[in-house]
């Protein structure tokens, strides 16, 4: 018979185990071994801010979180950074495809905006790429949104397309680098994208990388 005596543990053992697990499920703390703008914590914070901006300002519902469903915490998320739904209960809902970038580049628009243009253009021009996003959304949607996400997926794959699409480029800037010209082609030539553009600038005080480091430091210490 198995004896549980070897599993006798103290409160200290429990706290150490919880701290270790928390560290494993959060992105690894930056150690200076990669460029700060590639830091996963920085990217995740940008995606969290973007999701909250869409929810708070536009009443967008986020059926599934890319961050929550990441397989490996230390890696960047794949696909569209944020996928939202509006008018979910109506006959023709709206699918919101969001791409998030953060930049402290003094240039306006910053270089990352061209990456956002390329990514969002591909999603609306490449049927296979969009179908992959809709499959992911259908499979990961939280219970209240399963029906709406399944309906959007079905209408697309059956080529009925009973939904609208809005493209949401979301740029996170510091107060010292934010500029009215940051949107680039999204404002100058929105017709190039074939879908309505919802440009969102999120301005934070201080450097995004430093803010992200502090947020995740607090998160780790919170379970200590």
Give a concise summary.
With 224 residues, the chain is of the alpha/beta class. It has helices at 11-25, 40-58, 112-125, 127-140, 146-157, 185-188, 208-222, and strands at residues 82-86, 94-103, 164-174, 200-204.
What does this structure look like?
The protein has helices at 11-25, 40-58, 112-125, 127-140, 146-157, 185-188, 208-222; strands spanning 82-86, 94-103, 164-174, 200-204. A four-stranded mixed sheet has the order 1-2-3-4, sandwiched between helices. It is flat and about 65 Å long. Helix 2 (40-58) crosses helix 7 (208-222). The protein has 224 residues and is α/β, with parallel strands linked by helices. Helix 6 links the parallel strand 3 and strand 4. 42% of the residues lie in helices and 14% in strands. The mean pLDDT is 82. It has one domain. It has seven helices and four strands, in the order H-H-E-E-H-H-H-E-H-E-H.
List keywords for this structure.
224 residues; alpha/beta; 4-stranded mixed β-sheet; 14% strand; flat
Strand order of the largest sheet: 1-2-3-4
Number of helical elements: 7
Domain unit count = 1
Q: Overall mean pLDDT score?
A: 82
Question: Roughly how many Å apart are the termini?
Answer: 36 Å
What's the quaternary structure here? single chain
Number of E-state strands: 4
Overall outline: flat
Structural class: alpha/beta
Show unreliable segments. Answer: none
Give the strand content. 5-15%
What share of residues is helical? 40-55%
Main sheet overview: 4 strands, mixed
The radius of gyration over CA amounts to 20 Å
Helix/strand order, N-terminal first: HHEEHHHEHEH
